[in-house]
Amino acid sequence: MKPPDLEKHLRAANVPDRGAAYWANFPESVKRRLGTERPPAERRRMGWLPASVAVGTAVGGVVLGFFLWHRPAQALDAYSRLKSGQALYEALPRYLGRLQAIEQDGNGLRLVLSKERDVPPSLPVWVEIYESGHRRSLVIFSGQSFRFGGGDIEVLANPEGQVMLVGEDFLWTNRGKPAATDGMRVEARLLPKVF
Amino acid sequence: MTDSEEDVWVARSRHGDPDAFGALVQTYQRMIHDLTYRMTGSMTASEDLAQETFVRAFARLHTFRGDAKFSSWLYRIALNVCLDWRGRESRRDHAQRVWAQEEQSARESPPEATGERVQSALMRLPAKQRAAIVLTVCNGMSHAEAATALGCAEATVSWRAFVARRRLARILSDEDFQ
After folding, report:
1. Do B137 and A11 count as a contact with CB atoms less than 8 A apart?
2. Is this complex scored with an ipTM above 0.95?
3. For B76-118, what is each residue's pLDDT tens digit?
4. CATH fold for the domain made of B1-105
5. CA-based nearest distance B32→chain A, Å
6. Chain A (16-55) residues lying within 8 Å, Cβ to Cβ, of chain B
7. Do B168 and A59 touch (CB under 8 A)?
8. Contact of B99 with A113, CB cutoff 8 Å
9. pTM of the model
């Protein structure tokens, strides 16, 4: 590839959009976190440790376990392995009690792990959300939450196959009429039990 | 927001006014999200790191002297947040990487969309080379501006961007990128 082509592709490669609601809420979410911070001027006078130390520690607990993993030349690609539950069944024995979710992003499959072995056994759920041309795909256990649009969405499922996604301004269920999906398309279903 | 308005918001933020800082966040949120996404390739991680960038910026506002643009100063914080995150993740997930390496013998199918393929190629660059190419090509900064944001010499940026371009061209050509 020649340099002008490369630059053209790099400039044309759009970052996935997050939707108007996310941008409207983001400044508030930052301000909520500032509520726990002292004003910069006051902090300087008091000679406190930089707030970034505390912030780094807090955020460090949020995203646990980020890695790329590629399968040998089997028939299934990462997306298919995730959707079929194969990825879950492969990862779970190694991270029993810690595995909260597996998500696909631009790098491949990403494990979301708890620092402690405190994730209770529950039903695994396949979730896919389409919004503004962006697809979000993950496998997550019932009772766990994932971040979306600046907020947390909790996934709830029962053995009868009912799945609910519940957020502050968001509710989706695979039974009956969805209450509020804000223009998104959602798919979710139970995966076969692993416990 | 004009430069003079920005100065006012910065001054008010320094005195702990969250609404003033909220106005700065609103102005620069997309710019910072774009950068954190390009650096991580993950929507979730990029949102966390964008938030961390602004919180860290608020905590360090007293170090902003106004001799560079506020946006450049913010870029620098965001880049450091991203580079710290890379290091943190690397250490935390050493065990997982060992496992990943054990299993890695073939790459997954390339993503479908152009943006995803380019992002995937960017993620195969070392973080500092990726930062150089994101700032100079994707964000259109001059090498001097990128050097300010990265806290290194202009020649270093030029070299990293040169090497990164060469690698990207090879990666994308290998994938028969059209």
Report:
1. yes
2. no
3. 999 999 888 866 665 445 444 444 444 443 344 444 466 777 8
4. Rna Polymerase Sigma Factor; Chain: A (1.10.1740)
5. 11
6. 16, 18, 23, 26-31, 33-35, 37-44, 50-52, 55
7. no
8. no
9. 0.55
Chains A, B: CB contacts within 8 A come to 196
**Residue in chain A nearest B100 by alpha carbon:** A69
Q: Where in chain B is the domain with CATH 1.10.10.10?
A: 108-178
Of the partner residues A37, A38, A94, the one whose CB lies closest to the CB of residue B99 = A94
Domain B108-178 CATH assignment equals 3.40.190.10 = no
Instruction: Mutation target for B interface from A17, A63, A74: give the one with most B CBs within 10 A.
Output: A63
Q: What are the DSSP calls for chain B, one per residue?
A: --HHHHHHHHHHHHTT-HHHHHHHHHHHHHHHHHHHHHHH--HHHHHHHHHHHHHHHHHTGGG--SSS-HHHHHHHHHHHHHHHHHHHHHHHTHHHHHHHHHH-SSPPPPPSSHHHHHHHHHTTS-HHHHHHHIIIIIS---HHHHHHHHTS-HHHHHHHHHHHHHHHHHHHHHTT--
